[in-house]
Amino acid sequence: MAQALNMVLFYDLHERVPEGHDYVQDVMASGAKITFDHGALRTVAWPSGALPPGEAAISRVLRPLGFAVADTYPLPRLKMTGRAWAHTDFPETIAQFFVSELHPEQFSVEFQAAVTRVLADSVDPLGPQDIGRLERLGRDGSLPWADALALMPKVVACFGRQHGGFALADYETLLAESAEMAWISTEGNAFNHATDRVEDLEALSAQQKKLGRSIKDAIEVSKSGRVMQTAFKAAQVEREFLDEDGDWVTRHVPGSFYEFIQRERLQCGRLDLAFDAGNATAIFKMTTHEALEILS
Question: pTM of the prediction?
Answer without folding.
Answer: 0.93
